Amino acid sequence: MKSFKKGQSLVEFAVMLPLLLLLILGVVEVVIFVGTYINLIDLTREAARYASTNDPFDPTFNGDKDCRTNTGPGSLNFYYDISCVFSPLANPDYDLSNCTLNTNICKWHDGFNSTETFNSATDDILVTVFTVTDNVVTDHWPQTGPWVWSNNDYDTAHSDNWQRSCDGTNPTEIAAPLMDAAYINNYMESGSQPSKGFVVVEAFFCYHQVLGAPIISQLLPDPVKLHVYTIMPLPAAQPSATPKTP
Q: Based on C-alpha coordinates, what's the Rg of the chain?
């Protein structure tokens, strides 16, 4: 009788083991997913903080596209330098002084990102500056729409990644910018300071399941596009009597 009970317990354990393992793998995958989401939020916050201390209308900013150059005339680019926050941390094994690696790695480097790898073919970073007068958005820069990293990086084969699905099957998955003037206007309060400026930093990131556990990978989309953003005051964008020319 005792051996029968032991055998029954083993059978029950054998039946439950796959379910337990699947549950554990699912929990681990969720933890990694949430960690990625939090890391992306932190990166947008750091990028927005950096942007809030600079002036997008400063004439010394030009078309420089090198994260390593941050001092001296012509070495700064307001929008591109914001994207540099998302670039990888400096690697002591890279000879960046001579740029011995390919141009993309050399130029887009020395940032704050030690966890998530941005793919120039699928991921994206958007930056938009808003001017608010009497609690209504009266202007935005760039005036043609948000500044888009995938349109300004060294991967010329992939642009407007933010609009595309992660697998590239839907080129217009997102038809229009999510952080537009109407969105900002919804946050305006009549009792707040009537004139102000904002900078919005957005990140679009394709998350690929790390474990690829059975059933879970079939039930949940893989990859899935994450969208995070940070809105930060930007004093330089406040209304001014002098016309602004970005």
A: 23
